[in-house]
Amino acid sequence: MENNQLLKISEIEGRGRGLVATQPLKPGQIILKDSPLLLYSASVKNSTFCSNCFRVILQSPIPCSWCTSSFFCTSNCQSIALSSSHTPWVCQSLTHLRNTFSSHNNLNVDQQIQAFFLISAYNLAVISPSSFRVLLSLQGDLSFVSESDVLLLHSLVATCPSLNLGEFGFSKELTAALLAKDKVNAFGLMEPFEADRERGVRAYGIYPMASFFNHDCLPNACRFEYVDTDVNSRSNTDIVVRVIHDVPEGREICLSYFPVNFKYSERQQRLKEDYGFTCNCDRCVVEANWSDGEDDAMDKEGEENEDEEEEDEEMEEDVDDEVNVNGKVEERDQDFPHAYFFLRYMCNRENCWGTLAPLPPDASLSSVMECNVCGNLSKSDEL
């Protein structure tokens, strides 16, 4: 975890713990590079991804020494995994679970993936008790996890080879607590963007600092993943968070948990079902009184504003200062608080809907915007 001196964990009224800027932040500034506490596969089938770094395996895969379902891209990845994420116990347990899945039709895919998470989490308790304690310190609401799932998954993991968890023990209560942490803290490690197919999830990870980012439907930061990159200085499973525009000291840093073009009703349903809260951000307060038809019209207006240059320039003059400083549009523009955001910070590449952030500034601010989904680069004056 790098650059954490730029952020601090604070209690946010009505929102729980969140991350707040400890100094003024510039557009494009990297505020966090975070490595996962743990990772687990999002696929219940054999995959073409390395079981350690989750890069796609382009050459002859190196099979695990003990199981037939795990492969590695290099001998180095294999060596790292055997002493950390893919210990003999994990290997035996995953093999046992896969055999169990094939003989029991009462387990759905989500439950199977949750079982993978529990294996990864209990393994973490053995190889790194301090990291496991960090995992347990994260937010998690037990009411968000069904009792039937807890009983089913706990009994399933209990049939795996025995494991000495030391101070933590193995109990139904701990299993429930872990599932609650996973529910609201896991990030999907996404596959690279391709315009002609839906973007899939390659793995899930829980990140110690990034887990504290709260949601806003008009975020002031966005996360980047560089999956399958050849840049040696980056880990394939790290996430990088950059601010979108100027952020003053003391302002909470928020991400959007999904593409910003979602309609109000879609956003509220997703947040309630997946994270257990109702969003009351500035955008939602305004859109709460809209019909879906009005929402669609405003979305379309935001997408088509690039063809209305005069209006765009006037809007930019009116709101640029407020957006750059506050990340929000002031009261006189509350009829369409997301129109400027769509124009300035949403990628217009077909089927992308990613968020744009300037490249990290060096001596001067960058005018090049990078999409956090498709990776497309564009000049800010072209938007």
Automatic annotation (TrEMBL):
<dbReference type="Pfam" id="PF00856">
    <property type="entry name" value="SET"/>
</dbReference>
<keyword id="KW-0479">Metal-binding</keyword>
<protein>
    <recommendedName>
        <fullName>SET domain-containing protein</fullName>
    </recommendedName>
</protein>
<keyword id="KW-0863">Zinc-finger</keyword>
<dbReference type="Pfam" id="PF01753">
    <property type="entry name" value="zf-MYND"/>
</dbReference>
<dbReference type="InterPro" id="IPR046341">
    <property type="entry name" value="SET_dom_sf"/>
</dbReference>
<dbReference type="InterPro" id="IPR044238">
    <property type="entry name" value="ASHR2-like"/>
</dbReference>
<feature type="region of interest" description="Disordered">
    <location>
        <begin position="292"/>
        <end position="329"/>
    </location>
</feature>
<dbReference type="InterPro" id="IPR001214">
    <property type="entry name" value="SET_dom"/>
</dbReference>
<dbReference type="GO" id="GO:0008270">
    <property type="term" value="F:zinc ion binding"/>
</dbReference>
<keyword id="KW-0862">Zinc</keyword>
<feature type="compositionally biased region" description="Acidic residues">
    <location>
        <begin position="292"/>
        <end position="323"/>
    </location>
</feature>
<dbReference type="InterPro" id="IPR002893">
    <property type="entry name" value="Znf_MYND"/>
</dbReference>
<feature type="domain" description="SET">
    <location>
        <begin position="5"/>
        <end position="258"/>
    </location>
</feature>
